[in-house]
Amino acid sequence: MNREELANLIFPGLTKTIADYETLYPERDLGENARVTRFAPSPTGFMHIGHFMPCLIDYVLARQSNGVFYLRNEDTDTSRSVEGAVEYIRSVLAAYDLNPDEYEYRDTNETKGSYGPYIQSERKEIYQTFIKHLLLEGKAYPCFLTKEEMDAIREGQARDKRRIGIYGRYAKYRDLPVEEAIERIKKGDAFTIRLKSNGDFNRKFKFNDLVNGEMEFPENDIDIPIMKSKDGLPTYHFAHLVDDYLMHTTHVVRGQEWMSSVPVHYELFQVFGFKMPKYIHIPLILKKDGESIRKISKRLDPEAKMTYYEEKGYPKFAVIEAIMTIVNSNYEAWREGHPDAHFTEFEFSPKKMSSSGALFDLDKLDNISKNYISRLTKEEVYEGALAWSKKYDDEFASILEKYKEYSMAIYNIEREQKKPRKDYTYYSEIKNKTWYMYDEYFKDVTYDFGIFKKEEVKEILNTYITEYYNESDDQETWFSKIKELCTKLNFATDMKAYKVNPENYKGSVVDITNFIRVGLTTLTTTPNLYDIMQILGKERVTKRIENL
RNA sequence: GGCCUGUUGGUGAAGGGGUUUAACACGCCACCCUCUCAAGGUGGUAUUCACGGGUUCGAAACCCGUACAGGCUACCA
């Protein structure tokens, strides 16, 4: 038969059949409701928040059903593939504890799972076997359209306001006699393989998306390319079909930009008679750009890249929490009732997912992160700060290592109480908020005492140090001594009285404490002064006042 | 141009015909507390759910149009 000749000409030496692969990759032996999900990025060297969110959902879905979450490298576009990209993705997943159950890493030669290879370029023969089957059945054909011809078709369609694409009469080679095709291939003509679509654009089919519910699409009637001419690798659509079929994916989580490909995927699954996985088309993460709103972009928006959160030093917990609140808005309420539960215990419900795009609220992230850090122990804050510094600020890291106990004492200010302070939003902020505690950074400083003369302040501070300051005072005594000093110098101790008649006083207790505060830190805003002085210790306190 | 999806405050959103004077969280504002901050406390922050029409005793919710926004429309995923 001619078709056979054609198929063998294009794919000589394929030894297996679809049935062979089906036995090679049998149904997974999992519980009834187990979900098999995958994270399937293309290796471009980035991790985009628009990929992270579906990945998180994949992970939750698999974990809470005792299913499988696997990583698949979608490198069919060889021109866009970047060396080491998968390894980078592995590191991001590891950083967020979203480790896949099945994967394949080239650098370490590690592979796990019996449904591999998990790298698409290594699955070429598998795809070709499926394509060959289609060729044999006359459901696919080689297409010799050149780039120029296709451009011309597209232009013509655009001009005539017709649908763009290779379909109907534009599919010039779909009915080319097999003999001619064989001849041209033998001649060495470049070709792509297209699906011979059976669809009718005017007919609709129903499709159930787990987020959007039942939807209606027109059937696909475009003869989409399923194999590229350049390297014989499949297009995304075809690889999706083959891989998710053989790997027994039960749920495909992907961005809504894929929704318009549903007719294509529907037809592909139909052609083979395979059951489609369930689809969860999740809303896009958007960005407000001036007056308009658009899809968040790794090029324009730093927060689109996952490295942004790492560089700033957001705890992984905070990032996950913030994204989970977008994933399901009842997540926050759940979290309130389950403060210590792992996020995978939350029951994700695609139906409760919004079907419109969402702006990612960095203020919200900050709030979550701040609350989270405030609930950590001083040791945990220290470890977090140290880990971040080792990566991004060697100098601060060595200071932290040198002053471990001292640093933890700083982080412990007003921490061990029901409502702890919320000073730190992310780890990179800690240095900026504590630098003055370290003599190494407390150099060449300038002081600003506002309306008071420096000489006068200096005298007051000297009096304070010599006559009033005692390191072993408790906070109450400490403050009453400051008040004594106030009274002596005619600074008001009663703020209400002061506010009524400020002209009766030289100043108030606020001014005096601020003299001390600025003298010790140069700043007018710091955490509790008493604690600061306790941590600095007598030696530093006196020395800093002397050095004024 | 075509196809698909959506549209409830500054943000994420709840609510799917009458107990909604539109929940909750973030943000913002004000006041209180207070040695400065942070935290905390109290209150405020959509007279109204894109718009127009319809169904109904009654609509943010149901229907139809319109507008707007986004996505896709590659041998990219």
Features:
548 residues, alpha/beta, Rossmann fold, Glutamyl-tRNA Synthetase, domain 2, three-stranded antiparallel β-sheet, 22 helices, 16 strands, RNA-binding
Outline the structure in words.
By secondary structure, this protein is α/β, with parallel strands linked by helices. It has four domains: 125-282, 3-Layer(aba) Sandwich (Rossmann fold), CATH 3.40.50.620; 291-375, Glutamyl-trna Synthetase, Domain 2 (Glutamyl-tRNA Synthetase, domain 2), CATH 1.10.1160.10; 376-429, no CATH class; 444-548, Arc Repressor Mutant, subunit A, CATH 1.10.10.350. Helices cover 45% and strands 11% of the residues. The chain has helices at 2-10, 18-24, 49-63, 85-95, 124-136, 147-159, 178-187, 236-246, 262-272, 306-312, 316-327, 331-337, 362-375, 378-392, 394-402, 404-411, 428-434, 454-468, 475-489, 495-500, 509-521, 529-546, and strands at residues 36-39, 68-71, 103-105, 110-112, 140-143, 192-195, 204-209, 213-218, 225-227, 251-255, 278-282, 285-289, 292-295, 358-359, 491-492, 507-508. Helix 9 links the parallel strand 10 (251-255) and strand 11. Helix 14 (378-392) runs antiparallel to helix 15 (394-402), helix 14 (378-392) packs across helix 16 and helix 21 (509-521) crosses helix 22 (529-546). The relative contact order is 0.08. The protein binds one RNA strand of 77 nucleotides through helix 6, strand 6, strand 8, strand 9 and helix 8.
Main beta-sheet annotation: 3 strands, antiparallel
For the secondary structure, the number of strands is 16
CATH C-level name of the largest domain:
Alpha Beta
Here the CATH topology of the largest domain equals Rossmann fold
Q: How much helix is in the residues?
A: 40-55%
Mean pLDDT: 91
Q: Tell me, what's the shape?
A: elongated
> Helix/strand-derived class?
alpha/beta
User: Spans with pLDDT under 50 lasting ≥5 residues?
Assistant: none
CATH architecture of the largest domain: 3-Layer(aba) Sandwich
Q: Report the radius of gyration as a whole number of Å.
A: 33 Å
> What's the domain count?
4
Assembly state = single chain
* End-to-end CA span: 98 Å
Instruction: Tell me the β content.
Output: 5-15%
Count of helices?
Answer: 22
- Name of the CATH homologous superfamily of the largest domain: HUPs
Strand order within the widest beta sheet = 5-6-9
